[in-house]
Specification:
Layout: H1 9-23, E1 24-25, H2 28-31, E2 49-50, H3 55-68, E3 72-75, E4 94-97, E5 104-108, E6 113-117, H4 122-131, E7 134-135, H5 148-153, H6 161-164, E8 171-177, E9 183-186, H7 200-203, E10 212-219, E11 221-222, E12 226-234, H8 237-251, E13 255-262, H9 263-272, E14 285-293, H10 303-317, E15 321-326, H11 330-341, H12 343-350, E16 353-354, E17 357-359, H13 365-379, E18 384-390, E19 395-401, H14 408-412, H15 415-428, H16 444-451, H17 454-466
Parallel strand pairs: 2-4, 3-4
Antiparallel strand pairs: 1-2, 5-6, 6-10, 7-11, 8-9, 8-10, 12-14, 12-15, 13-14, 13-18, 16-19, 17-19, 18-19
Helix pairs in contact: 1-3, 8-10, 8-13, 9-12, 13-15
InterPro entries: FAD-bd_oxidored_4_C, FAD-bd_PCMH, FAD-bd_PCMH-like_sf, FAD-bd_PCMH_sub1, FAD-bd_PCMH_sub2, FAD-linked_Oxase-like_C, FAD-oxidored/transferase_4, Oxid_FAD_bind_N
GO molecular function, one term: catalytic activity
Protein name: FAD-binding oxidoreductase
């Protein structure tokens, strides 16, 4: 069927009979929320949105579409930063929303596992774990919208990767609907299972190009009984890294998050976010350190508070930390975290920005920030670097804001040049051009250059073997 042909009527009728009015959307107003990505980089068309109410319904819908040669685009919370869940402009790709598959099938506090369906919102998974006296640690800015299936399909990172790892590290087993409609049940709660290829890892990070994740066994952890948050003004990027090393050397297990922010970004927060108070204004570099322990606090001066104060005192004496504020209550700790969490929104309100989600070895993060900022300033005089993010795991969002007075559209027209300028530094430092956001549609053209040869060839052979018709999320990940 030509790409510009709509869905064949017999297929639409069969899907309608299978799914019912709740499970098949065709009204343009109902389709609208599913057509554009969160960053508004892409806008596509679709003849319908499939919303299965069960795994069996999804499997049958996939079989019907496979028989008709109809491509499918999986969609969770639609929070992709790289257009990974957006249909193309041809109008033939069917969007498959897993929003109705949102049950928690099981929580076992002794095994420390949760079996959750793909459409469960990440925040709901966190809350359910807390209700069972446990912790599901994956945390990111979109956690009120992003879903379990989405974060696994993209191998999401987030704020606590330094301690708990990415989504892949929090998954023990999967249930997947394959491109031919078969259902693979790999929902095993085992910590050890050495029985051939670890198939579950094929689907984590594949961005829906190999099948639909419908449920997962997730790892839980003991909940934190004590936490401390410090917001620090540091001398420079090197001092930020030195501070991380001090905390890591003293008690690596206590560090739940370690986030870097530039003075420019913190200034945007104070300028644009309502109630955006900054306790230590006027500095060029900041760090937020979050410590947590499952041990109950003892006495007035708890173990984590003593650790935080001791390390900050050492760093101040060494000239690495210039000033620091410590959250004295849950509300104050949340307010300090808000400075970091609202960075994307503050940048958006300031004007046009080009976003680079990159990673380098942790030891190279100061060099990444400094060299990328200098190179972009040479490329576009007046450009405003706004680096921030997960210094503790080497993932810096090396974002660049338009110069004051420059037209936003003209600035965005230089996006490719800006990204290439940053990527030259990243490559030289042995890093990756996509740390936690994935490839989606935005970065497919980079794959041949960065992952060419045997690596890309192997990916393409896996894709051809699992999805020989190429119907699963076409145009994503692979060039």
């Amino acid at each position: 069927m030509p790409d510009d042909q709509p869905l064949p009527a017999p297929l639409l009728d069969r899907l309608a009979a299978l799914l019912g009015p709740r499970g098949l959307l065709t009204d343009p107003a109902d389709l609208e929320p599913h057509l554009a990505d969160w960053r508004a980089l892409y806008r596509g068309r679709t003849p319908c949105v499939v919303r299965p109410g069960s795994v069996a319904e999804l499997a049958e819908a996939v079989r019907l579409c496979a028989a008709a040669g109809t491509p499918l685009v999986p969609q969770g919370g639609n929070t992709s930063m790289v257009g990974g869940a957006t249909p193309d402009e041809g109008g033939r790709q069917v969007v498959v929303s897993l929003a109705r598959l949102n049950r928690i099938r099981d929580i076992d506090p002794l095994d420390m596992t949760m079996t959750a369906e793909a459409g469960l919102v990440l925040k709901a998974a966190q809350d359910a774990a807390a209700g069972a006296g446990c912790l599901f640690p994956l945390s990111l800015g979109a956690e009120g919208t992003a879903t379990v299936g989405g974060v696994l399909s993209t191998n999401a990172g987030g704020n606590t990767t330094v301690r708990y790892g990415n989504a892949r590290d929090l998954m023990l087993g999967l249930e997947v609907v394959l491109p031919d409609g078969q259902v693979w049940n790999g929902l095993r709660r085992l910590r050890k299972d050495n029985t051939g290829y670890a198939l579950r890892h094929l689907f984590v990070g594949a961005e829906g190009t190999l099948g639909f994740i419908t449920a997962a066994v997730l790892r839980l952890f003991p909940r934190a009984r004590e936490s401390e948050v410090g917001f620090c003004a540091v001398r420079d990027e090197e001092a930020a890294l030195a501070l991380f090393r001090r905390f890591r050397d003293r008690d690596e297990g206590a560090v739940r998050a370690f986030e870097y922010m530039s003075g420019e970004g913190v200034g945007f927060y104070a300028k644009h976010i309502e109630g955006g108070n900054v306790p230590l204004p006027g500095h060029a570099h900041y760090v937020l350190v979050d410590l947590a322990s499952s041990r109950p606090p003892e006495g007035g001066n708890t173990g984590l508070r003593a650790l935080l104060e001791a390390v900050l005192e050492e760093a101040m004496e060494a000239g690495e930390v210039l000033d620091a504020a410590i959250g004295e209550s849950e509300a104050q700790r949340a307010a300090l975290w808000r400075i970091r969490e609202e960075h994307p929104e503050a940048q958006k309100r300031e004007g046009a920005s080009v976003k680079n989600d990159v990673s380098v070895p942790v030891s190279k993060t100061p060099e990444l920030i400094r060299r990328s900022s200098e190179a972009c300033a040479r490329l576009i005089p007046g450009i405003r670097p706004v680096p921030f993010g997960h210094l503790g795991d080497g993932n810096i969002h090396m974002n660049l804001e338009q110069p004051v007075g420059m037209d936003g559209a003209a600035f965005l027209a230089r996006s490719h040049d800006i990204m290439e300028t940053v990527n030259e530094v990243v490559r030289d430092l042995g890093g990756s051009f996509s740390a936690e956001h994935g490839i989606g549609r935005l970065k497919t053209d980079m794959m041949a250059d960065w992952r060419g040869g045997a690596e890309l060839d192997l990916m393409q052979r896996i894709k051809a073997a699992v999805d020989p018709q190429g119907l699963m999320n076409p145009g994503k990940v692979l060039p």
